[in-house]
Design brief:
Rossmann fold, alpha/beta, single chain
């Protein structure tokens, strides 16, 4: 397996164009697109500065659209799959987590893309990941201490989320289209967990 690293700010269209150009030059084709980039401040809405709002939209919405636009032609040549990484913030309000609104917008875009591009042999889906233990989760715990009350069994590793993405990139993605698969070990099945579940 061979890989290349191409630094780029996906919020800037020219950098996205250069990113895909270098990838196609190196590999000659594109089979999959995984939209996982995200950048946003952890702060309440009333404290968001104009630059915070622009960052929210440019990276987490426009950046994904730019990537999809560049990926469309090479994906259509052989058929391919797209998976967007969402989060539970797309459907539940979290304190100091404005990123959730952009995740919700992208889940809607996934449905549109699945309809618009399915005829070209491209499947498009999303994975709504639950509580994944990454560096950003450490910050989320600071603004939402209630997360410490959740049982350990509800937390996912990045590898577990990757397994779901891998599934959707495979043959299953051709029959699952425009859907957002919730991968949270059942954490969102109840409104709240006031007592440890049995």
């Amino acid at each position: 397996m061979r890989a290349i690293s191409v630094p780029a700010d996906i919020g800037k269209k020219k950098e996205v164009e250069a990113l895909f150009s270098k990838a196609e030059e190196a590999f000659g084709r594109l089979d999959f697109l995984v939209l996982n980039a995200a950048r946003a401040p952890f702060k309440p809405w009333e404290k968001l500065l104009e630059r915070d709002l622009r960052q929210l939209v440019e990276t987490n919405y426009l950046g994904n659209v730019f990537c999809m636009q560049q990926a469309l032609a090479p994906l259509a040549r052989h058929g391919g799959a797209v998976v967007f990484l969402s989060s539970l913030g797309s459907r539940f309000a979290n304190p100091d987590y404005p990123l959730g609104t952009m995740k919700a917008a992208m889940e809607t875009a996934v449905k549109y893309w699945a309809e618009d591009f399915g005829g070209r042999g491209i499947s498009v889906n999303a994975v709504c990941a639950g509580l994944v233990k990454t560096d950003s989760f450490k910050t989320l715990r600071l603004v939402n201490p209630d997360l410490d009350n959740l049982p350990e069994r509800f937390f996912l590793s990045p590898e577990e989320v990757a397994d779901v993405v891998h599934y959707l990139l495979g043959p299953a993605g051709q029959v699952i289209r425009g859907q957002t698969i919730v991968a949270d070990k059942g954490a969102s099945n109840r409104l709240h967990w006031s007592t440890p579940p049995g």
